[in-house]
């Protein structure tokens, strides 16, 4: 019988082609995930529009640095204590920490699948007619031993699953930092809003007292017959309306106080904030360059880790096309009598290798790859959206601070003019040179401008905290208070 070369070549080629295809796909499946890149602008638009050269300083990336206690830049011991209470007792932070712990447990579970598995087993059975000799007598089999198994990770399925779980845990860690920063910022903003309300309440109540003095003078002049009862009614109306505004501020303060209680993890019924003078400093926060936002913001970092985890899961889905190879083994004792179980003659052992490769699965593996790719596309879109949101947040707060600075200066001039007009109107009214309506208009204008000035000042503090949150925090107090000004100086300006 004559054999030619093609007799051996064709079967060998038929066997090697699928193997080569599998190796090529394996190389694609085990590619190292790459972090997504985003083109950051050279500078923030509001930095270019800043009126003062060098107002914003460049800050170094702080992704690997511990998050600083940025709230200390406001130089307010009460705020420091509130943030510390929120850090330790806020329920949102605790829930995020629990999700991080859960993600880390999944990492340990995924790593455990890559390790050898060893177990202890024992069993007893009684049977008849199942042996080779088809015995009609019942027989007993008692066994005890160790079982061993290990899956060979030839195509990287288990390592990819571990990488995905680890990246998920890192993403959860970033979300925990983001939640902590959010709670800190909300605590600071709520506290500063409450202090602004306290000052506004004090201003409104002082105005009520001024109306009472005017009412007493008006009543005296009415009793003397100098003016009509209509003038008395006008002053009473203004005083009652202003008292109503004061009660509205009381209600708003109570709501802010209750919000602080929730943020610090306490019951609103037992939480109380005393009314104190607003002496909080207003720091100037370094904005840095746009690229540093991508390294400092924990939510951006979390979104990036989610993209990398999705890339790893694409590799896991692709390895479903390759065979699973496992090594198995067992050693122990087997005997028909319990007393003979651990005799040397009753020893038994066995080793084996298992290979499994689905041939027809109805498109399940292809659907798994498509689903993993769809999740990757969604993660990439979410990452890009998070980056754009980060840049927008910074631009919003920078523009707010720039406009509020100019508004504060203009509003300060309006307050000074309104105060002088009230003083002149009060003197002229007491001397009978102007009518009561002129005095009431002057007082109403002064109150409106003073309240507006307080609201602008409060908005500056809110925007400053918002900028810190938009930039991802990450400063110590000394880095941010180089140009800080006490609240009294801000109000004076």
Automatic annotation (TrEMBL):
Pfam families: OEP. It is found in: Cell membrane. It is a lipid-anchor. Residues 43-62, 117-138 are annotated as: Disordered. InterPro entries: MdtP/NodT-like, OMP_efflux. Belongs to the outer membrane factor (OMF) (TC 1.B.17) family. This is Efflux transporter outer membrane subunit. It comes from Variovorax defluvii.
């Amino acid at each position: 019988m004559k054999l030619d070369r093609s007799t051996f070549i064709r079967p060998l080629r038929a066997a090697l082609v699928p193997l080569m295809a599998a190796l090529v796909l394996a190389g694609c499946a085990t590619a190292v995930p790459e972090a997504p890149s985003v083109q950051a602008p050279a500078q923030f638009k509001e930095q270019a529009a800043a009126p003062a050269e060098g107002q914003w300083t460049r800050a170094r990336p702080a992704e690997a640095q511990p998050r600083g206690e940025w709230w200390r830049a406001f130089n307010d011991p009460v705020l420091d204590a509130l943030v510390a209470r929120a850090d330790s007792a806020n329920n949102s932070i605790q829930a995020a920490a629990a999700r991080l712990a859960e993600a880390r447990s999944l990492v340990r579970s995924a790593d455990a699948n890559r390790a050898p598995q060893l177990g202890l087993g024992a069993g007893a059975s009684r049977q008849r007619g199942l042996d080779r000799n088809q015995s009609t007598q019942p027989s007993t089999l008692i066994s005890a031993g160790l079982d061993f198994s290990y899956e060979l990770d030839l195509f990287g399925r288990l390592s990819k699953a571990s990488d995905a779980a680890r990246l998920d845990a890192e993403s959860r860690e970033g979300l925990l930092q983001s939640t902590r920063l959010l709670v800190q910022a909300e605590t600071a903003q709520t506290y500063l809003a409450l202090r602004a309300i306290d000052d506004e309440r004090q201003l409104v109540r002082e105005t009520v007292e001024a109306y009472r003095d005017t009412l007493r003078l008006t009543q005296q002049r009415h009793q003397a017959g100098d003016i009509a009862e209509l003038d008395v009614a006008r002053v009473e109306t203004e005083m009652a309306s202003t008292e109503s505004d004061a009660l509205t501020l009381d209600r708003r303060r109570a709501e802010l106080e209750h919000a602080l209680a929730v943020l610090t993890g306490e019951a609103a019924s037992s939480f109380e904030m005393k009314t104190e003078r607003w002496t909080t400093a207003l720091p100037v926060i370094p904005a840095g360059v746009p690229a540093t936002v991508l390294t400092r913001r924990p939510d951006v970092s979390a979104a990036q880790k989610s993209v990398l985890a999705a890339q790893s899961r694409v590799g896991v889905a692709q390895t479903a096309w390759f065979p699973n190879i496992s090594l198995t083994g067992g050693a122990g004792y087997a005997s028909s009598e319990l007393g003979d179980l651990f005799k040397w003659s009753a020893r038994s052992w066995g080793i084996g290798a298992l290979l499994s490769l689905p041939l027809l699965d109805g498109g399940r593996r292809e659907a798994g790859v498509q689903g993993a790719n769809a999740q990757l596309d969604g993660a990439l879109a979410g990452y890009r959206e998070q980056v754009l949101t980060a840049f927008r947040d910074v631009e919003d707060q920078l523009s707010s601070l720039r406009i509020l600075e100019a508004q504060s200066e203009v509003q300060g001039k309006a307050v000074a003019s309104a105060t002088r007009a009230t003083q002149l109107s009060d003197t002229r009214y007491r001397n009978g040179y102007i009518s009561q309506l002129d005095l009431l208009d002057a007082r109403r204008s002064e109150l409106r401008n003073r309240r507006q000035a307080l609201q602008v000042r409060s908005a500056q503090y809110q925007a400053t905290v918002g900028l810190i949150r938009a930039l991802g925090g990450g400063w110590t107090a000394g880095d941010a208070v180089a140009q800080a000004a006490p609240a009294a100086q801000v109000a004076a300006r």
